[in-house]
Structures are given as structure tokens and as C-alpha cells.
Amino acid sequence: MPSDKIEYLPVAKKMDLSLSANSISPDGKYLVGNNEKRLSGVFTGMYIYSLADKNYKKLSNTGIDPLWLNDSKRILYFDNGKFCIMDTRNGKSKIVYNMDQDFIPTASMEALSPDNKTIYYIKEEKESDIWMGYLK
Hints:
mainly beta; Neuraminidase; 4-stranded antiparallel beta sheet
């Protein structure tokens, strides 16, 4: 793509917002992602960016890896060991799967299947052995 066609997202200086976009809505109107603090790299909430209005809308203080569902109204995201769905019009969320029951310490969402029925994610497991030594 020619560089004169690239349009960069504006930085919302008042909110110290630097959107790390995860997903574009299927209707092509919105981006969703996390606010990434510039110096620390810490994510501090989820935001939507309207491509038409060029405005940001804060969705929550928590949650990571948001992905749009096919209806362009809801997102799937990960929050404290739980997969949740949020209606972006009213901000209401519901838990769809609690990963705490699987004892998974950390995970990150990577993709949704085209029919929105399968979640592809990465889970991190830490494994170790316990050794015993005897002194003679």
C-alpha cells in the first residue's frame, strides 16, 4: 500500500490512550483493542475506535484480547481467567467460560472461527520436577 494512503490512529492525549488494536468489526466500521500505556506497555482497559467518527469509546477498565463477533455488536474477550462476551452498545458482559476450573495460570486469545463457535487460544503451563538428594 502506498504510504500516502496510510492513516494513523490519533493518540488521545487526554486519556493517555494508545490503542493496541486487536480486531476490526466485520462491518468494517470499528476497531477494538486495549489501551497500552506508552512507557510501561501495560494494558489498561478496552476501547473501540470508530473509523467514521474518528472517536474512541471506553468499554471497560479490564479485559484483554478483544475480538469482534460476526454481528459487529458484541466482542469476546479474556478477563481474569474467564472468557466473556460484551455487548458494545450497552457495556453489559456475561461469562461464557471460566478457565479457573482448568487451573490454567495464563492464556491469551488468538482467534475465533468464522462461525464464532470455536475459540483458538494459547495457554501457558509451568511444569517442574521435585528432586530429593541424600547426603552420605
